[in-house]
Amino acid sequence: MLKKWKHLPFERYADDIIVHCRGRWEANLVRAGVENRLRECGLELHSEKTKLVYCKDSNRPESHPHEKFDFLGFTFRPRKANTRRGGLFCSFSPAISNDAVGKIRDEIRSWKLHLRTAESIAELAQEINPKLRGWFNYYGRFIPSALRPIERHVGQSLVRWACRKYKTLFHHRTRAWAWLLRVIDRQPDLLALWEHQRCAVSTIGAV
Length: 207
What we know:
By secondary structure, this protein is α+β, with helices and mostly antiparallel strands. The chain has helices at 24-40, 98-111, 121-139, 148-165, 173-186, 192-196, 198-201, and strands spanning 10-13, 16-19, 69-71, 74-82, 88-96. Helix 2 (98-111) runs parallel beside helix 4 and helix 4 crosses helix 5.
């Protein structure tokens, strides 16, 4: 890259690389050059992951077969965005990827919060907050609303826990949601996800 295309910005993490080109012609040229160089080193491009992506937005309105890609847990694709004056435009921007959401959900399930009825909600929060805070600080930098599935999943786990812990909530998920929302009102900083986006949690009860 430094010898042949030092004018092109690129990002690299381990063996994943993104190169920003000015057009299809240049992207094809760079791809062929990188492919040749890797072949000299006894390596090859990944046949499925390597592709040319058109960064579609309001300034690039054409349509192409590939208009999104994943990188470091984010999906970059065209999205609706608001202007400062309240209008809408198309922005090519990142948000947490579906694959990352799925992996986080799997980890939350592995905690089995609903079975830990010997602990208080404060004790549960103390244990899981470092993980939650890390996820929300990282993925919440871009389009925080995309994290709502994770917020809902944590809320659902806590509702199941409350239904098992308190006799008055047993088999009463609606009551358990109401109890959880009252806890949020009393202790808005108890869980890191509530610190991150308190208003989003109020939508959980409707799920």
